[in-house]
Amino acid sequence: MYVYKLLQLYHQVPSSHRRKAEGREWKMTTITTSLHPHCNTIATVLSPLCHSSSIGNHRVQLHKKIPHLFLSSSSSWSRNSSRARMSSERLTPLPEDRIVVGLGLLSVDYLATVASYPKPDDKIRSTSLKVQGGGNSGNALTCVARLGMSPRIISKVANDNQGRDIIEELETDGVDTSYIVVSKEGNSPFTYIIIDNQTKTRTCIHQPGYPLVPDEISSANLLSALHGAEILYFDGRFPDTALEIAKEAVSKNIPILIDAERLREGLDDLLELADYAVCSAKFPQAWTETLSIPTSLVSMLLRLPKLKFVTVTLGEEGCVMLERMSDDPQMEEVDVDSLLDTLKQRKDDTVTVPTCVISPKAKLRAEGIGTVTGRLILGTAEKILPSELVDTTGAGDAFIGATLYAICAKMPAEKMLPFAAQVAAANCRGLGARAGLPWRSDPRLAPFLN
């Protein structure tokens, strides 16, 4: 009976939309295969249709008639679907100010999974190939959208098939693409990503498109993009354009978060205007030319007096945040490197879910650098079973997307870091930068959003 209903609904969808869906593997919705062996085929076609904004009537129809067949793409969601519905009813309201604006890279990712990374001059076969949207900014804002916020993206693509696919996928996830510049020349950015199934690492080969220059965004469009924004996010691309937009944001008291992934042209000027920074593991020491992560974080806060916090992500080792606090001349000084060692000793390695260990407020001293008043916070990562770990592509972008949400929701740091780590861990269970990004109703997020 269920299969008959599915087939009926499938044939009610216009043929043009069916053709558009067929042949594309969008794992946003699956239908349990225990009902009928043909369900997989039907689900592949219906999956994008259920989430396409262009055929909303059919989506409503499908969910109304057979809502219990539509479960999440991951097996863990399928097992907990009823829990997800229950938890979503108890979620705290979304932040009133939920507009997040981002400027940065959009691309198409070609993800090839291999048994092991090839040696020079080897010829190997991939075990799977998937094509998805990518780019730091696109990934982070997709995460923001799935968490219920209203993101707008400023970027540039070419007027080619890849560019159209990039825009369509973002719109399907609820990202406002009105401020994307579509170039008549050049190519849209794309990235070849080789995923080593043995080591669970990935290698990226990126082909950039034409840069977005300031003249391509009119004053009217810029003002429109920033109107009502709660926070502005930069991934470090298009430095000239980013700086112009950042200056406008500062004049409007819109806080800025910078993704400091690596040393880039123009990044120093952007960091001087930033309120928050999230860095890759290698960036702080490379930028400050210091010998340890804690010392480099102190150096960053001293060099960038506007920064409220800086977080460095460390993959499976978690993250470290230095949060600035009001100065107290009477407070005792503490060596920041020794303090991090103490926090590591206090960490409970038996806990598998993300947690954090927090230092008291103190004057944190970095030898030869100076002191900053604040808290040092050690965040842990979720311990993912090897059988569940699929791909780490985009984990940092997911962490940033969750951090953007947490700032808008005014989460304290001790809640923000485990939340961001949980979102990043969920993403590691899917192939590519977006397939595993959780939705707001995911039961794994309930402890943070209830």
From TrEMBL:
GO MF annotations in UniProt: kinase activity
UniProt keyword terms in alphabetical order: Kinase, Transferase
Matches recorded under Pfam families: PfkB
Start and end residues of each Carbohydrate kinase PfkB domain: 103-323, 386-439
InterPro entries: Ketohexokinase-related, PfkB_dom, Ribo/fructo_kinase, Ribokinase-like
Keyword Transferase: yes
PANTHER family in UniProt: KETOHEXOKINASE, PHOSPHOTRANSFERASE SYSTEM TRANSPORT PROTEIN
Stated name of the protein: Carbohydrate kinase PfkB domain-containing protein
Taxonomic path: Eukaryota, Viridiplantae, Streptophyta, Embryophyta, Tracheophyta
